[in-house]
Amino acid sequence: MLRGLSNAASALVAQQLKLDVTANNVANLNTTAFKKKDVQFKDLLYQEEARRGNAVLPAAEKPVTAGTGTAMSAIRTDLSDGVFQVTGRELDFAIVGPGYFRVQLPDGSEAYTRAGEFRKDGDGFLVTPQGYRVQMPQLPAEEHEFRISEDGIITAITPAGEVIPLGQVMLAYFDNPAGLIKLGGNLYAASPASGEPRIEQPGPHTQIKQFALEGANVDLIVEMTNLIVGQRNFSLNARALQTLDEMMQTANNIRR
């Protein structure tokens, strides 16, 4: 009975975490380049029910075991591309395939993002909505149109129609992007789990699209279904915990 209490309690904690992660996915449905999360569970230790002094089981028969509950093993990030939304804005960029834009933080360190909703500062550099400078070629101070090709080459177009090459955009690639540390504000930092970034130009499996943004890869129908299932599982385990409590109360009230 005590094991049943601990099993139900561990299930409540696990389902609460599942609900929190799913609710966060729904909340970020309209967040640019958001990657949805999913909770992975594992079973805890198993104990043999055989007691000392019991008859020895035949070799072919396995001892009876009982589990001790469940726990979270990991929160997995789905790195698939989101739905691409055409904005028509010149300073909006989307990365198709792997790769991250490089962002310089105020302390001099480098962060990474796939949210390409940039703007131009007074010096002609592209910056994030927070004002952090993006590691991209400097744009002319004049009001020129500019274009970026799918392989990351930026050019400016003067009012007279002259095309001026500005440079090459270099992206950051990681061996394990799921290991990146989330900083908030659509920014990530490298970690030992992600490995050091490889700075390369967009390759055969990566393209940069101008006038577009990457949306969240959240499927609302799937997430709402997960919420309903999580709520039912939480209610079921809460009911099991209540039933075990009533059984213990009944046992405690037995008199000779």
Question: Mind explaining what this structure looks like?
Answer:
This protein folds into 2 domains: 112 residues, no CATH class; 131 residues, no CATH class. The longest helix has 33 residues. The protein has a 3-stranded antiparallel sheet, with no helix packed on it. A 3-stranded antiparallel sheet has the order 8-7-12, with no helix packed on it. By secondary structure, it is of the alpha+beta class. Helix 1 runs antiparallel to helix 2.
Kindly summarize this structure in a few lines.
The chain has 256 residues and is α+β, with helices and mostly antiparallel strands.
Topology summary:
Layout (H helix, E strand, L loop, with lengths): L1 H26 L9 E7 L2 E3 L16 E3 L2 E8 L6 E3 L5 E5 L4 E4 L5 E4 L2 E2 L1 E2 L5 E2 L5 E2 L10 E4 L4 E5 L5 E6 L2 E3 L7 E4 L2 E3 L8 E3 L6 E4 L1 E3 L5 H33 L4
Antiparallel strand pairs: 1-4, 2-3, 5-21, 6-9, 6-20, 7-8, 7-12, 10-11, 13-14, 14-15, 16-19, 17-18
